[in-house]
Specification:
This protein has helices at about 5-15, 20-25, 30-45, 60-90, 100-120, 130-140, 200-210, 225-235, 245-255, 280-295; strands at about 50-55, 55-60, 95-100, 120-130, 145-150, 160-165, 165-170, 180-185, 195, 220-225, 240-245, 255-260, 270-275. By secondary structure, the protein is of the alpha/beta class.
Length: about 300
């Protein structure tokens, strides 16, 4: 079946005009050329698309099916031209950025705000996931760029440094653990915790570390933001594992003590990962270059 876009537009015009003559005029072609194209479509399909009547033509059931598909195809073509035309007006495209909890809340907001301010036509879609899920998605081309903890399995991906992002313990002042400068996670697992919701990437990460030690963590409450976690900890409800940047920002206002975690998994860095930077669209490469430059500042 060999229809081109001219055939499809002609058929739509014939239907709208009610005559082949009117369809030919709307398509800027001669009546003979239009008639030949219609006959060619019918011969290719082996069915009549139009019923010729005294005062014009009527679309057959097969013709109605062709009309539905023609509208879909031409609509998609028009959308493609619109999207590509956006490049001419400065719109550079859309990027799907996958990131873990800490990157989402602490490190990316300022960076992406700066990037979007410099690239007025760009848009970003940020999605929070665990680092392990992110690297799998990037490997399988289900995401273009990931910001993950370097503890994830990054084999086969191009990796660029982004930010230091150690995890720490926060406690209310006067808590037995607050007198320590540093502590192992194993000494924390028996204490009531305050954490993020079960859908949080950090929640999954911390619970995974507990399971590796044969422990099940007890959460007194789960909240939606790091600030809320710190505030509840400061009220003496429990202790929490949060990124160091979060703890330092809220230490005074939430009345919490910050204790270093000695476990290797807590001494983490955030990195940017992609399959192959050179294979990505130009606007995605621009974002990666911007984030790596921000990391160097």
């Amino acid at each position: 079946m060999r229809f081109d876009l001219t055939d499809l537009r002609l058929f739509l015009h014939v239907h709208e005009a009610g005559t082949i003559t009117g369809g030919a005029h709307a398509s800027h072609m001669t009546l003979a050329s239009a008639s030949e194209r219609i006959r060619g479509m019918e011969e290719t399909l082996g069915v009549a698309l139009l019923t010729r009547e005294r005062r014009g033509v009527r679309v057959t059931p097969a013709g109605h099916t062709l009309l539905q598909h023609a509208r879909l195809v031409l609509s998609q073509i028009d959308r493609m031209h619109h999207d590509l035309g956006d490049y001419r007006s400065g719109l550079r495209g859309h990027v799907r950025l996958l990131c873990n909890s800490s990157a989402m809340s602490e490190h990316l907001p300022e960076c992406i705000s700066g990037f979007l301010a410099e690239h007025a036509g760009m848009s970003l879609d940020l999605e929070e996931r665990t680092s392990e899920d992110i690297v799998d998605a990037v490997r399988n081309q289900l995401g273009e760029v990931g910001v993950v903890a370097d503890s994830a399995d990054l084999q086969g991906l191009a990796v660029y440094p982004f930010r230091e992002d150690p995890l720490v313990l926060v406690c209310p002042h006067g808590h037995p653990l607050a007198r320590h400068k540093s502590i192992a996670f194993a000494r924390v697992t028996d204490h009531p915790l305050v954490g993020l919701g079960a859908a949080s990437a950090l929640h999954d990460h911390v619970n995974q570390q507990a399971r590796r030690q044969g422990k099940t963590l007890h959460y007194r409450v789960r909240l939606r933001s790091f600030e809320s976690v710190c505030r509840v900890v400061g009220q003496g409800i429990g202790v929490a594992i949060v990124p160091k940047a979060v703890a330092l920002r809220h230490r005074r206002s939430c009345h919490i003590s910050v204790v270093t975690l000695t476990d290797a998994w807590a001494r983490r860095h955030l990195v940017i990962c992609v399959r192959c930077l050179q294979d990505l669209p130009e606007h995605v490469q621009q974002l990666v270059h911007y984030l790596t430059a921000a990391a160097a500042r």
